[in-house]
Design goal:
Length: 177
């Protein structure tokens, strides 16, 4: 009396191997997404601090410009201060824009990691579903290799493998390490 391949397949399908395999990867990606968000927001806060310092410098220059000095040297000084004040304002505005860009880019990357985590979870569920479907449609497999010929199982597994080896994941891990 040999093992009934259909029963073995049903038992394997019931284990949720696809979901189990994808859960750790998906969880790691969600964690990476959170780290990306935190680092992007921290960097944005630092850049906003620089923008505030630049604003303060600009205000300091404005007070120098208001000094009622007389003479050519005073006018030349006032002109230099005015030009510097304009550049300082542009710097401050650029820093504020950079802070917002960092924040948005960090959120976009984190959202992409979250979406990839969702896709990996779905692919894991698809593997389990394909195994269950194969178990119900092939109650009497003549050979275990029949399962390997079932394209839905192979396709679902290859999708899961492909998602779990995305270059985005390794590049984010390298940067955050």
């Amino acid at each position: 009396m040999g093992l009934d391949a259909g029963e073995v397949l049903s038992a394997v399908a019931g284990l949720g191997l696809g979901t189990a395999a994808s859960a750790a990867a998906a969880s790691e990606l969600v964690g990476l997404g959170q780290v990306v968000r935190e680092r992007a927001f921290a960097l944005a806060r630092e850049v906003e601090g620089l923008a505030r310092q630049s604003d303060s410098a600009q205000q300091g220059l404005a007070t120098c410009e208001e000094i009622p000095w007389k003479g050519q040297a005073a006018e030349a000084f006032r002109l230099v201060v005015h030009e510097r004040q304009l550049r300082q304002g542009q710097c401050s505005e650029g820093l504020s824009n950079a802070a917002e860009t960092v924040r948005l880019a960090g959120e976009a990357l984190a959202a992409e990691l979250d979406a990839l985590a969702g896709s990996i979870s779905a692919a894991g569920r698809a593997v389990d579903s394909a195994l269950r479907q194969a178990a119900s449609s092939l109650p009497e497999l003549s050979d275990v290799t029949d399962l390997l010929r079932d394209h839905s199982v192979v396709f679902a597994q290859s999708q899961l493998d492909s998602l779990m080896s995305q270059p985005l994941v390794s590049s984010v891990k390298r940067v955050l390490a």
